[in-house]
Design brief:
Blueprint: H1 6-12, H2 16-28, H3 36-45, H4 53-69, H5 71-86, H6 92-107, H7 111-122, H8 135-143, H9 149-152, E1 190-191, H10 253-262, E2 269-275, H11 283-291, E3 296-302, E4 306-314, E5 323-331, E6 336-344, H12 351-365
Antiparallel strand pairs: 1-2, 2-6, 3-4, 4-5, 5-6
Helix pairs in contact: 1-2, 2-4, 3-4, 4-5, 4-6, 4-7, 5-6
C-alpha cells in the first residue's frame, strides 16, 4: 500500500532529506516495487545534477542493496553509478564507500559473503535503548569527566582498587558571599554592617570599661559646686556566656541548602582576615579540631590557593536551638581565615552575642586565640 506510490513521489520531492529517504526505501523495498530499478536509474542518469552528498550516499546504498535482490536489472546501472561515485571528489565518505563496494564485489568469490558484509555496513544501530539510559551513571561520569571513567563508562570503583580511589567531595553551590569582604587591618577582626559596625571584641572580658561621661563644668580651682560631680559609671561586666552546642547533630545537604537560602545574603555576617600562624596541612585536621567543639562539616575541599569548608552547628534546645551555618575559607598565602555565618532560628535579639561566642569557639578550636 505504501511502497507502490514511492516511484511517483520521487518525482515531486525536492528537499534533500526527503529525497534521500525515498531513495533508501526504494532500495529496501525493491523486491516488492516493480518500478524500483527504473526509478533509481533515472536518478543515476542525473547524478551530475545532484548537489547534496546525502542524496548521493542514499542512492549508492539503495542501488547496491537492490542489486542483491534483482541483479539482472541493476547490474549495468550499478556499474555506471560506481564509476561516477569513485570519481566524485565532492564527498570523501561517498568516494570511500563506492571504492569499498567496488573492490568487495569484484574480489568476492561468493556473492552472499559480499551481501552479508555490505548489509551490515548499511545497518543503522543504536548505541543503547532509551530504557537503558542510566541518568545516575551519567551524572557520576560528569563528576569524573577528566578521568578514564568516561572512556570505560563506569565508576572508578569498578576498575580501581579501593585504596587507590581519590575521594570526591562535592561542595554545595557557591553563594554571592563567597568572596569575603576586604580586610582593612590584618590585626583587626571586622564584621559587616549587619552588626552596625560593632567590633568582634565588643563585650568580651578583655574589652576596656567605658569611660564616664565628662561633666559639663570642671572645678579646676577647688571652689566646689552646689551639685556634686556625677559618680563614675561602674565597670562593664562580661555578659557572654559559654555557648552550649549539641554534640550529636546530623543535617542533610538538602536541609543545609534550604536553611541557607532562607536567610538573605544581606543578613549574613562576614568576618574576614582572622590571622593564622600557618595554613592547615589538610581538611581533616580542621574538621577534627572543630568536631571536638561540636562544629560539624557538611562538605570540604582543597583548592590551589585555599581550603573551603561548609560547616554547621546547633545550640541546645534549652538555650534557643539556633542553627549556625558557616562557610569558612582558609587562605594559604597569606594564612588567614574568612567566615560567613548565617544564624537560623533562636532569639533574634541574642543572635549577635551568640555569633560572637561561636567565633571565639572556632578560634579556640583552631588555636587562633
Amino acid at each position: 500500500v505504501i511502497s507502490a506510490p514511492l516511484p511517483r513521489a520521487l518525482k515531486y520531492i525536492n528537499e534533500p532529506a526527503g529525497k534521500a529517504s525515498i531513495i533508501f526505501l526504494l532500495g529496501e523495498c525493491g523486491a516488492d516495487i516493480t518500478e524500483a530499478p527504473y526509478a533509481l536509474e533515472k536518478v543515476i542518469d542525473s547524478y551530475d545534477n545532484i548537489a547534496d552528498a546525502g542524496v548521493k550516499t542514499a542512492l549508492l546504498a539503495a542501488t547496491v542493496n537492490l542489486f542483491f535482490t534483482r541483479p539482472p536489472e541493476v547490474q549495468h546501472m550499478l556499474g555506471r553509478l560506481l564509476k561516477k561515485a569513485t570519481e566524485d571528489i565532492s564527498s570523501q565518505d561517498l568516494h570511500d564507500r563506492a571504492l569499498f563496494y567496488y573492490r568487495l564485489l569484484r574480489s568476492s568469490p561468493d556473492p552472499t559473503v559480499a551481501k552479508s558484509i555490505i548489509s551490515k555496513s548499511m545497518a543503522v544501530t543504536a548505541s543503547q535503548f532509551a530504557e537503558e539510559d542510566d541518568s545516575e551513571l551519567r551524572a557520576a561520569l560528569m563528576d569524573e569527566f577528566n578521568t578514564l571513567c568516561t572512556v570505560y563508562r563506569c565508576k572508578p570503583e569498578n576498575f580501581i582498587d579501593e585504596e587507590n580511589i581519590v575521594p570526591f567531595v562535592k561542595l554545595p553551590t557557591e553563594h554571592p558571599l563567597a568572596a569575603a569582604a576586604p580586610v582593612v587591618d590584618q590585626g583587626v577582626n571586622t564584621i559587616t554592617d549587619q552588626m552596625n559596625g560593632a567590633a568582634l571584641t565588643d563585650g568580651y572580658a578583655t574589652a576596656a570599661a567605658p569611660q564616664p561621661a565628662p561633666s559639663a563644668e570642671v572645678d579646676l580651682l577647688g571652689f566646689g559646686f552646689d551639685d556634686p560631680a556625677p559618680a563614675p559609671a561602674p565597670p562593664a561586666t562580661n555578659s557572654l556566656q559559654s555557648l552550649s552546642l549539641k554534640s550529636n547533630l546530623s543535617l542533610s545537604g538538602e536541609d543545609y541548602q534550604s536553611k541557607w537560602g532562607s536567610i538573605p545574603d544581606s543578613e549574613a555576617i562576614v568576618i574576614s582576615g582572622l590571622p593564622m600562624a600557618s595554613a592547615p596541612p589538610s581538611t581533616d585536621v580542621v574538621e577534627g579540631a572543630l568536631s571536638a567543639f561540636s562544629v560539624f562539616t557538611m562538605a570540604s575541599g582543597e583548592l590551589p590557593t585555599e581550603f573551603k569548608f561548609f560547616l554547621y552547628a546547633q545550640e541546645e534546645d534549652s538555650f534557643g536551638g539556633c542553627y549556625f551555618l558557616i562557610q569558612a575559607v582558609a587562605l594559604k598565602q597569606p594564612s588567614s581565615l574568612n567566615l560567613t555565618i548565617k544564624p537560623v532560628g533562636g532569639d533574634p535579639n541574642k543572635q549577635k552575642e551568640k555569633v560572637d561566642q561561636l567565633v571565639e569557639l572556632i578560634k579556640s578550636a583552631l588555636g587562633l586565640c
